[in-house]
Amino acid sequence: MTETFYDVMRRQGITRRSFLKFCSLTAAAMGLSPAYAAKIAEAMETKPRIPVLWLHGLECTCCSESFIRSAHPLAKDVILSMISLDYDDTIMAAAGHQAEAIVEETIEKYDGNFILACEGNPGLDEGKTGGMSCIIAGKPYTEQLRHAAKHAKAIISWGSCASWGCVQAAAPNPTGATPIHKVPGIGNAPIIKVPGCPPIAEVMTAVITYILTFERLPSLDRQGRPKMFYSQRIHDKCYRRPHFDAGQFVEKWDDDGARKGYCLYKMGCKGPTTYNACSTIRWNGGLSFPIQAGHPCIGCSEDGFWDKGGFYNRLSGIHQFGVESNADDVGMTAAGIVGGAVAVHAAVSAIKRTQQKGDQE
Predict the structure, then answer these.
(1) pTM, two decimal places
(2) Domain 5-230 has CATH 3.40.50.2000
C-alpha cells in the first residue's frame, strides 16, 4: 500500500509540531481559514499519496522551475511526501526505456486513479511538421498524451502553454501547438487549468494539496481555473491601486512617479484585465511580484496574451476615478445630479398635487 504523507514525514524525522505548522501554512496558501488546518492534517495522516504522471510537451520548463521553488509547502515535501511523482523526465533519475516503462506501469496499476500533469502542449500540424515537432521515446508527444489522458482521474494543465497555447501557439504557429483541452481524442477526464508563464509555485502545490485533502477538484471558474486563485483581478488587490484611483501614474521609466511607486497603468500594465493571485500570494516565498519590482503586469495568465501583443501599450476602455486630478469636477457633477434629482422630484410632486386637487373638485 502507498504510504501516507505523514508516514513519510515521520520517517524523515519531522516532528509532530512541524507537521501541524506545515498544515497551517498550506491552509493559508490555499486561502482557507485556520480551521481547515485540522482537515488537512487528517488527510495527510490517513490518505495515500496521489500517483502523478508529469508529462512535458512544447515548453521551456519554467513551470517546473517555479514548482521546485515552492515555499509553502516546500516542493521537496510535495514530491517526496504528498504525491507519488512516478514520472517526470526533467527531475527523475531514470532515463531511456526504464523511464518510459514507468508510464505504462503507473497506468496499469492506478488506472483511473492518477493525476496527469501536463506542462507544455502538443504540436498537431502534421502537414508542416509531420507531427514530429515534439518526440517522446520515438513517438509524437500527442500519442503519449492521449494514451495517458484516457486513463487519468484528472488532468492539470500547468502554465499558459498547456492552458492556452502561449508563445508556441502564437502566429504563425508552425507546429500547430494546441492547448490540452482542445486536443482531439483527449478523453473525458476533467481538466484543471493553472495558467501563468509560469504559474505561482504555491498555487501549483496548493492545487495538488486540495485534491489530496478533500478528494475532489477545486471549484473552477467558467474557463476551468481554480476560483481560489483566479477569481480576482491583479488590479483589485494591487497595492498601487490607490494611485490608480487618484490619477497618479508613472509616465515614463524612472520618472518621479516611478520613484514614488505610482500606478503603472500608462506603462502598459494589464493588471485590470488579468485574473491571478500575483498581488496576494506573490513570488519567491511571498517576497515580491512584477508590479512591486516596478514592471507592469503583461497578463501572462490570460488566453492569447502573446498574439494580443503590446506589452507596454496602454489598455483601452479603462476609466479611473482620478480623485487628485478632478475632485472639483467630480464634486460639481455630483452636485448637479443631486440638484437635478431634487428638481425632478419637485416637479413630479406638483403634478400629483394638481391631479389630486382635480379629482377632489
Answers:
(1) 0.77
(2) no
